């Protein structure tokens, strides 16, 4: 009985901690531990887990972090099953928004997450105050889902996109431009072709900071951006490579030097690698095939601070 009483008193002490202290403790937890663990301990912890300071940023990648503790076959198979679970994103969003409500200003999807149309619309409806958004490469959306989502995100200032044409489909630049007048920061990572540049110039006229870091780029497309975006102030082409198709079709022979000269003439800050790419560690690590493992490693980093997350 004495041990039971001691245990009961110990639980009571934790349950009676001041809310501000609980919030400080919860801030140290990752999203999974907070939503699936701490918030379910008792009513006091449940109420503290709603504190707005905990939910400024929602980073869904933290739901998929690999446990380093065990490499058993069972855990390995569980990770594979979880990777291909197309409903995982919705479950995570549901659990998070029960606590966060409309508080979040930053929403980061996992690089390899699968987003259905309903997932994007659900996130936009539940979290309408997003200012910084990171979209994954596996995200087939329709015009309607893009229109609904970005009509909710009127405060959006920074958009980061990982694009794989075979997995992402057509991006909704028109829907973004029509709804997000505050958008001034754009990062695009993947295959950057001339038609993508044309859509950005047509619909995202207010862009001031643009990063194509680690992308395969069309030099003609980048030149179109420099000339067409009137408010462009800084352009990051660090660790980029000219796309093979563009190299074949580049009849005007637009070089990196031409791009840098055009940026200088427009008073655009131009960020790029050394002309001797052998001196660039990030470029040397880039494989000629299987780009996306390299992309996972690098997409959270950027020389422009607004794109780091």
UniProtKB/TrEMBL annotation:
Record InterPro entries: F-box-like_dom_sf, LRR_dom_sf
Protein name as catalogued: F-box domain-containing protein
């Amino acid at each position: 009985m004495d041990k039971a009483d001691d245990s009961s008193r110990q639980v009571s002490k934790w349950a009676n901690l001041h809310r501000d202290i609980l919030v400080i403790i919860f801030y140290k937890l990752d999203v999974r531990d907070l939503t699936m663990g701490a918030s379910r301990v008792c009513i006091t912890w449940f109420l503290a887990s709603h504190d707005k300071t905990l939910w400024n940023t929602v980073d869904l990648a933290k739901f998929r972090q690999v446990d380093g503790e065990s490499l058993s076959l069972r855990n390995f198979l569980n990770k594979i099953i979880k990777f291909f679970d197309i409903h995982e994103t919705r479950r995570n969003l549901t659990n998070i928004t029960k606590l966060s409500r409309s508080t979040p200003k930053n929403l980061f999807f996992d690089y390899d997450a699968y987003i259905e149309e309903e997932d994007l619309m659900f996130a936009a409806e539940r979290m309408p105050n997003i200012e910084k958004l990171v979209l994954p490469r596996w995200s087939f959306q329709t015009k309607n889902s893009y229109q609904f989502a970005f009509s909710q995100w009127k405060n959006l200032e920074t958009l980061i996109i990982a694009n794989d044409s075979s997995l992402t489909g057509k991006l909704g630049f028109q829907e973004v431009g029509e709804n997000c007048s505050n958008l001034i920061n754009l990062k695009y990572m993947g295959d950057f072709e001339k038609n993508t540049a044309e859509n950005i110039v047509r619909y995202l006229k207010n862009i001031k900071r643009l990063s194509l870091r680690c992308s395969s780029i069309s030099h003609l497309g980048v030149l179109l951006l420099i000339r067409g975006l009137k408010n462009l102030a800084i352009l990051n082409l660090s660790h980029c490579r000219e796309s093979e198709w563009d190299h074949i079709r580049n009849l005007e022979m637009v070089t990196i030097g031409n791009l840098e000269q055009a940026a200088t003439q427009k008073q655009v800050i131009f960020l790029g690698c050394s002309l001797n790419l052998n001196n660039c560690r990030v470029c040397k690590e880039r494989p000629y095939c299987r780009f996306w493992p390299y992309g996972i490693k690098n997409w959270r980093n950027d020389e422009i601070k607004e794109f780091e997350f």
